[in-house]
Amino acid sequence: MLRRHRLSVLKVFLILHVASTATLAPAHAWNAKGHRMIASLAFRQLSPTQQAKVAEMLTRHPRFTPDFAEPMPSEVRAGDAAARQEWAFQQAAVWPDMVRSGPPEKRAFHRGEWHYVNQPHFLNAAARTELADKLTINLAMEVPANATLDTAPLNIVQTIRFARKTIADQQTSPSDRAVLLSWLFHTVGDIHQPLHSTALFSPKLFSAGDRGGNMVKTAQAGNLHSLWDQFPGQADDFREARNAAISDSAKREFSVLGLQAVKSLDEKTWLDESHALAKSHVYTEEILTTLRRLEATAVNDSQTNTIEPIILSDSYLKVGGHVAQERIMQAGYRLGAVLKELVPE
Questions:
Q1: How many C-beta atoms lie closer than 10 Å to residue 107's C-beta?
Q2: Helices 314-342, 156-168: inter-axial angle, 10-degree rounding
Q3: pTM of the shown model
Q4: How many domains does the chain have?
Q5: Per-residue pLDDT band at 46 (split at 50, 70, 90)
Q6: Helix (H, G, I), strand (E, B) or coil at 214
Q7: CATH number (domain holding residue 256)
Q8: Is the separation of the CB atoms in 198 and 279 below 8 Å?
Q9: Helix orientation angle between 48-58 and 174-190, rounded to the nearest 10 degrees
Q10: 314-342 and 48-58 are packed helices; what angle lies between their axes, rounded to 10 degrees?
Q11: Residue 22 confidence (pLDDT) above 90
Q12: In the predicted model, is pLDDT for residue 116 greater than 70?
């Protein structure tokens, strides 16, 4: 019992350490480690033939040399073909975040709206009554008939559906297929992060939404969105992410969860799961009580920047870390199942 207690305390300490050492950088939906873990989990759901097929598709990416081949670690480059293929999987999963910055030819691939959908969650009943009919949010689930790679306004569900359909179309060019394959890797991960499904609305603090928790300041990690992104860890390292994926998938609790997850490959279901988790485990009473008090005294949303950071409890951090582990596992298994459909044996 004493050993179990010590391990539990250590786990909470590690979660707190990750949170307290975070920066205030813009949140990207799971840090690189989370996305790389999802890619490695998916890699292990495929046969060697399927792994090779997907990796070959990614070599047709228009930015394969600067964004995939050149950053490859020397030990991966010197390793076997499977390691290089898994690197390509991981790099595809982080690539849509990579193109947020850099030279114009790189940033040309950035599609900010494709990462999320702000399904509304209201601070209280009064906020719902005042704002519900005024919101202008793209909540559509179907893909526009004229959607292309240059269609910026797609939300995350539309993006995943567009990617799956277009990759499967044999008329799609190899370069477009590779770009959309990278987006598929990334957004299947994003949609499992609860704060990429939901935004909190209130008349005074967040009349246009809290941007998926980005505007809710926390003592740990700077803001609520960053905190949830960082639960899987912050290291952008191929080997560490691969080993974490292998370790977690070896645990019966997580492997059973992953196998159950692949029974539903509908994007709307994944979104609904995240939205429910956002309401139950992200925007808890611990957070809402503070925000409701601030809302009652605020004059308008210009005061949002003066909100004092919320100090979250150890319990919140511990539960959040476990939820993140579960969502990473579900995303990895589901991505693998989707890839199997796209590249049959």
A1: 11
A2: 20
A3: 0.90
A4: 1
A5: very high
A6: coil
A7: 1.10.575.10
A8: yes
A9: 110
A10: 90
A11: no
A12: yes
